[in-house]
Amino acid sequence: MTERRIGIVGAGFSGAVIARELAEAGFSVLVVDERSHIAGNCHTERDAESGVMVHKYGPHIFHTGDKRVWDYINRFGEMLPYVNRVKATVQGQVYSLPINLHTINQFFGKTMSPSEAKAFIQEQARTDIEDPQSFEEQGMKFVGERLYKAFFDGYTRKQWGVEPNTLPASILKRLPLRFNYDDNYFNHPFQGMPKDGYSKIVENILDHEKIELRLDCRFEDLDEEFAHLFYSGPLDRYFNYDMGRLSYRTLDFEPIRAEGDFQGTAVMNYPDPDVPFTRISEHKHFAPWEAEGFEKTIAFKEYSRACEEGDIPYYPIRRLDDKELLEAYEDRASKEQNVTFVGRLGTYQYLDMDVTIGRALDVADDYIAQG
Predict the structure, then answer these.
(1) How high does pLDDT run on average in the chain?
(2) Which of 78, 102, 257, 361 has a Cα at 20 to 30 A from 240?
(3) Which segments of the protein form a coiled coil according to its record (predicted)?
């Protein structure tokens, strides 16, 4: 009798990392993905007209404080230095994000020192909000009404499609506020971009004799029994949406083609509420080591909307009123035999790539340890 193998749904980072770890431990693994390519929403490919490496489903910048994860991704591809310096066009002016001393001085027309700016922002902040529960409350307590309205309120409404007072405060707690001129969007010690794109890294991770990869294959169409299943698809889809659909946002991209350099930076946010898109990303700038070599460029206007049936789910909304349905699905998931739910969709959490890889390594370690 042939030993049953491990099934993995999804060929993104979660599925690929788990597959590789189990394969190296001697397990036979089948990885399936309903798309025609690997790497999930991290998929990268060369644009035929310009030659630019395009992040097909929007920008993915790798940053982490976890050396194990950094060493792991460098094992399968060459990571080159990249610092994410985001700009924002607000009311006809261009500012640096995250909000830093330059942003504050420029916005208020001042020349404050770090200590002066800190005291100034404390005066702006809503001190009556002691324990912020919503995104809006966190923003008012964080930077005060004027900066919140300019940089966060409109952008958030467009990105999430809901009132900011219905979103959890935790979304905004991820963003830094700096009283110096540091415009590096992230604080992590390890930051970079893959020289050959994310898809090449995932391809290398999946390159093992004990891993079978099957693309254009839906999980629902499999008839094989597995010793264990690692599922990185949407949590509610696993249960056929029979208790209702969890809320996601999806993205639409409108390409812009130009000669030379279109906007001079990788990401330009547009927080103003009367601008229909959230940001424009120019992808040649995600690879600064080769950006000057392209005569043509490609950028994308990014539009966010509610995810409907047939759309690609990007961001779990996790509204305060989604909690009950999520808990019901999580309760059912916990009772499934020989199934582990992983990744952004399988756990209905917004996860950065480094966290996704770290969790996948931990899940694989736990399974291997159980024998």
Answers:
(1) 95
(2) 361
(3) none
